[in-house]
């Protein structure tokens, strides 16, 4: 599915009475955050952590993904931004 498909889905939800979406977690599909903002402009949109990690792995040498994931796991499991930065 593309962003236009999801725009139609969101429009249908709005027409059925869904007045607002507090937060949306998306997978990186180009145009999806803009489609959400068109129908639900106050929605907080963030990229799914799994997709963020997959995108990060593109920059890791092919022989080091396990070490990278071991170092990254405590960062994304922490309870606060400050703890993650430590």
What is the compact description of this entry?
This protein has helices at 3-15, 32-39, 49-57, 65-76, 81-85; strands spanning 23-26, 44-47.
Note down, in words, how this protein is organized.
The chain is mainly alpha-helical and 86 residues long. The protein has 2 domains: 1-47; 49-79, no CATH class. The chain has 5 helices and 2 strands; from the N terminus they run αβαβααα. It has helices spanning 3-15, 32-39, 49-57, 65-76, 81-85; strands spanning 23-26, 44-47. Strands 1-2 form a two-stranded parallel ribbon. Strand 1, helix 2 (32-39) and strand 2 (44-47) form a beta-alpha-beta unit. The longest helix is centred in the N-terminal third of the chain and has 13 residues, at 3-15. It is elongated. The N and C termini lie far apart (39 Å). 6% of the residues are buried.
């Amino acid at each position: 599915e593309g962003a236009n498909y999801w725009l139609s889905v969101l429009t249908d939800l709005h027409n059925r009475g869904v007045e607002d979406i507090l937060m949306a977690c998306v997978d990186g599909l180009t145009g999806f955050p803009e489609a959400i903002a068109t129908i639900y402009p106050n929605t907080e949109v963030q990229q799914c952590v799994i997709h963020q990690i997959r995108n990060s792995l593109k920059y890791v040498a092919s022989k080091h993904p396990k070490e990278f994931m071991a170092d990254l796991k405590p960062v994304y499991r922490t309870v606060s931004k400050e703890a993650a930065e430590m």
